[in-house]
What we know:
homodimer, 99 residues, alpha+beta, elongated, DNA-binding
Amino acid sequence: MKNFIGDLNKAFESRVRLGMMSILMVNDYVDFGTLKEQLQITDGNLASHIAALEKLAYIEVRKQFIGKKPNTSYAATKQGKQAFAGHLDALEKLIKQSI
Amino acid sequence: MKNFIGDLNKAFESRVRLGMMSILMVNDYVDFGTLKEQLQITDGNLASHIAALEKLAYIEVRKQFIGKKPNTSYAATKQGKQAFAGHLDALEKLIKQSI
DNA sequence: TTATTAACTTTGAAATTCAAAGTACTTTTT
DNA sequence: AAAAAGTACTTTGAATTTCAAAGTTAATAA
C-alpha cells in the first residue's frame, strides 16, 4: 500500500486548472473566450486561474488582433506540459492502485 | 475537444480525500493511525476529512477494542466506492484526452 | 455619441484547509 | 496512587483558495 499523493501537483488540484491544462495539452493557443466557454466559469474567475498558472510559468500568453478585435490566447509551456504530465502520472498510479 | 471536468466529484478534489479513498478502495477497514501515517497529516485534519466523507456516506466507521486499546477503523461504503470509481473514470478520460 | 465587446482587475464574501490546543477516556509507568 | 502517555477525536481560529460581481480600459460598431 503505497502512497502517491505526495507526487500530486498542488497547482492542478483545482478542477478548473485541471481542465485548462487538459485543454492546453492538446491545443496550441486557446483563446480566453474559448476557455471560458469550455470551463463554464466567469471571466474574473478564469483570469485568476490563468494568473496562477502564468505565475508558475506553466502557461504563456499571446496577445494579438484578429481583424480588429483583440484576442488573447494561452498555451502550455514546456515546463507546464512536463509538470502536468507528472501530475497525470501520479493520478494514474493512484487510479491503478485503487482498482 | 470535450470537457470532462463536470464529471469530477467535488468531494475528491482534495488530495487528502483522494488518498484516503484510494487506500480504502483496496483495504477493508483501515484504522485512524494507519491513515494518519499514510497521509502524513495531523489527527485533527484527518478527523475533519473523515467527517466530510462520512457525512456523504462514502465511508463508514467501526469502533472496537484491540486488546485494551481503542481502535477506530474506516471502510469505503458501496456508494463511496461507486462515487470514487466515477471520479476516477472522469480523471481517466481527462488523462486520455490530454495525451 | 452611446453602446458593445474583450479581457481583464479589484473587491469582498464564502468555502476550504489546516495546525494547534484542548478534551475524554483509558492504560501504562513510576 | 499519581503522573504520563495513547487514541481519537472536537474546537478554535487563521491562512489559503475559490468565486462572482462590479468596475476598468481600450478599442470598435451603431
